[in-house]
Amino acid sequence: MLGGLTVALLLLAACSPQESSRTFQLEELNSSGVTGTALLADLGDGSTRVVVDVDPAGHPEMPAHVHHGTCAELVPQPLHYLNNVIDGASETVLPISLADLLAGDLALNLHVSAADMGTYSACVDLN
Fold first, then answer.
1. What percent of the chain has pLDDT over 70?
2. CA atoms within 13 A on the CB side of 39
3. What pLDDT digit, counting tens, does each position of 39-88 carry?
4. Under a CB-based contact definition with an 8 Å cutoff, are residues 86 and 70 in contact?
5. CA 54, CA 44: separation in Å to the nearest integer?
6. Taking Cα atoms as reference points, which of 110, 94, 111 lies closest to residue 49?
7. Is residue 8 over pLDDT 50?
8. What are phi and psi of 15, to 5 degrees?
9. Alpha-carbon distance 67 to 111, whole Å?
10. Over the stretch 77-118, which tens digit does the pLDDT of each residue have?
11. Can you tell me the distance from the alpha carbon of 81 to that of 64, in angstroms, rounded to the nearest whole number?
12. Cα 95 from Cα 113, distance rounded (Å)
């Protein structure tokens, strides 16, 4: 009886779902005043929903991306484009699993505006 229970518990552990969502606190950059969170939720089909919710601090529309690298050293070319953060909110479904987003050196960043793509308003390392 104990052997069967042990096997059943091992099977349940092997079948347990991996982390289904993760919330990250965005770090304000360049005295932008932008603060808030990015929620990444695994949709179970190899894709991830990214929900950005920030205090826009006077920035009505901010482009957002996932980049290789870290907030300290971003690779300039975006890996994934997110929907612009408009009035502090954005939601995008990316064709990559949450596990894959968290497995590499990736960062999610916001730009001050489309006219000023060289200035970042907020960022978080995805690890």
1. 85
2. 11
3. 999 999 999 999 999 999 999 999 999 999 999 999 999 999 999 999 99
4. no
5. 26
6. 94
7. no
8. -95, 0
9. 12
10. 999 999 999 999 999 999 999 999 999 899 999 999 999 999
11. 7
12. 25
Residue with tokens 């929620």: 39
pTM beyond cutoff 0.90: no
Q: Which two tokens stand for residue 34?
A: 């932008």
DSSP for the chain, please give it.
Answer: -HHHHHHHHHHHHHHS----EEEEEEEE-TT---EEEEEEEE-SSS-EEEEEEEE-TT-SEEEEEEEEE-SSSEEEEEEEEEEEEETTEEEEEESS-HHHHHHSSEEEEEEEETTEEEEEEEEEE--
Tokens of 9: 């518990």
